[in-house]
Amino acid sequence: MSSITVSNQASINSNLFNSNLFSIGAERLALLGKHHKVLMQGYLAGYVDETAFSEIALKKLIAARILWRPDEQQPLALRPLVSELIASMVADENRRQINADVAQKLEQIRNRVQAYRDAQFKGDYSVAELQLQRLTEQVHDLSGQFEEAIDSLWHRLNSDFGFVSSLDDKIRENERAQKQLRRLLDGLGLLDFNELIELAEGNNQLRKLLVSQLQNQLSSHHSSLLEVQKRLLALLAKFRQQQARSMLIANMAAFLRQHPKYQPADYANRSEVPSLFNQAAAIIPQAAVALDRASERQVLAELVRQLPRPSLHQTLEQQSASASIQPDDEAIIARQQALKLDVENFYLRVIDEASSLSALDYLLEKELAWDSEMWLYQIIAEYQALPIEEKQMFLIKREETAQSAVNNLLLIQDVKIGLQIAL
User: In terms of C-beta distances under 8 Å and separation of at least 24 residues, what long-range contacts does 104-111 make, across chains too?
Assistant: First the structure.
């Protein structure tokens, strides 16, 4: 019974939609026939004379999607689909767009720009003006193609979803709309404004047409597509939620048909609740001792006494562990102090002799056990750590060699330290 009701409702909605579509289509076709001369003149001229229409007729033509204004600074023109319809009927091969692909549109724009430049180069300005007019129409047609597709998406959102008989059909319509949106985004991605800037080549008219106006229009298209995408995702989430609820109801109805004598139990009045309905974990209340109450001090003292104390065995293990680590730390500290002391003796030797002294020569002379690289590093570090007044007393000279013929990395081989008066 329910399926028959849904089918009848869908049939009524479909008939209502066809009736509305018929009346709207007939009205707009009548507008085309009523103003056919002015519209054909606008097709030939590339723009429509607004003064040839009354204010009411002009509003009707714009609302009927027959006329549009590509830009605020541009006059009214025929919609791209209307121009293609006229071009197809009169077999105007120069104006008819056989392929509506974006790549094909871009190729036509490139060819039209080249024809415009060739006419300017030859000094044929009338032909150049005609080519510029045709180029303007093609650019507006390209933008109008996206606008028509976006309007089609909005129409699908506002009408098609309401005239399907099931949620599955609505979800399929949503997927179709998302695929169309993806194709539009891919088409917008084909437009490379770096290439369009190169096509303009400093021509103000071409730059305004191919870059400024087109970029503003495509930015508007991107914003519209973003809103469409948000609406599609919101509708899809709503449809999925409705589908889950309808599946639950349908499954429950099927279960009741198979078990007509089923009676839901009154679980609220049962002493033993099934585990399926008893999933909540027990609530553990938080508690704390009130230290400001004198009556609870004795209870707090008893709790402190009951705290486990570390055993003697654990204490000895911790002490032994700390004892095993401590000698290593002390050895490292002692080694660092010894290195620092040897470096200080090196600087004292430089002061006593008042002459430059090689760090490696001093290392070999004293037979110190330090690594040469570590020794040189400590010599330089000690010099950098001196105060500015004391650092000015010494001069440091590094003996450096390149790592290889193809590498400019300099390696320090030796360091000579001396007093200012000695070097």
Answer: 105/138, 105/141, 105/142, 105/145, 106/142, 106/190, 106/191, 108/138, 109/135, 109/138, 109/139, 109/142, 109/199, 109/210, 110/199
**Residue-level pLDDT at 14:** 54
Of 237, 235, 223, 233, the residue nearest 188 (C-alpha): 223
HEC-encoded secondary structure of the chain: CHHHHHHHHHHHHHHHHHHHHHHHHHHHHHHHHHCHHHHHHHHHHCCCCHHHCCHHHHHHHHHCCCEECCCCCCCCEECHHHHHHHHHHCCCCCCCCCCCCHHHHHHHHHHHHHHHHHHHHHCCHHHHHHHHHHHHHHHHHHHHHHHHHHHHHHHHHHCHHHHCCCHHHHHHHHHHHHHHHHHHHHHHHCCCHHHHHHHHCCCHHHHHHHHHHHHHHHHHHHHHHHHHHHHHHHHHHHHHHHHHHHHHHHHHHHHHHHCCCCCCCCHHHCCCCCHHHCCCCCCCCCCCCCCCCHHHHHHHHHHHHCCCCCCHHHHHHHHHHHHHHHHHHHHHHHHHHHHHHHHHHHHHHHHHHCCCEEHHHHHHHHCCCCCHHHHHHHHHHHHHCCCHHHHCCEEEEEEEEEEECCEEEEEEEEEEEEECCCC
**Are the beta carbons of 110 and 98 closer than 8 angstroms?**
no
Q: What is the pLDDT of residue 312?
A: 57
Given this model, what pLDDT does residue 35 score? 83
pLDDT digits (tens, 9 = 90+) for 28-75: 888 878 888 888 888 787 778 878 888 888 888 888 888 888 777 778
The CA distance from 281 to 276, in Å, is 13
Residues of the chain under the 70 pLDDT cut: 1-18, 88, 90-101, 159-165, 267-268, 270, 277-278, 280, 289, 310-329, 406, 421-423
pTM of the model: 0.41
Q: What is the pLDDT of residue 421?
A: 58
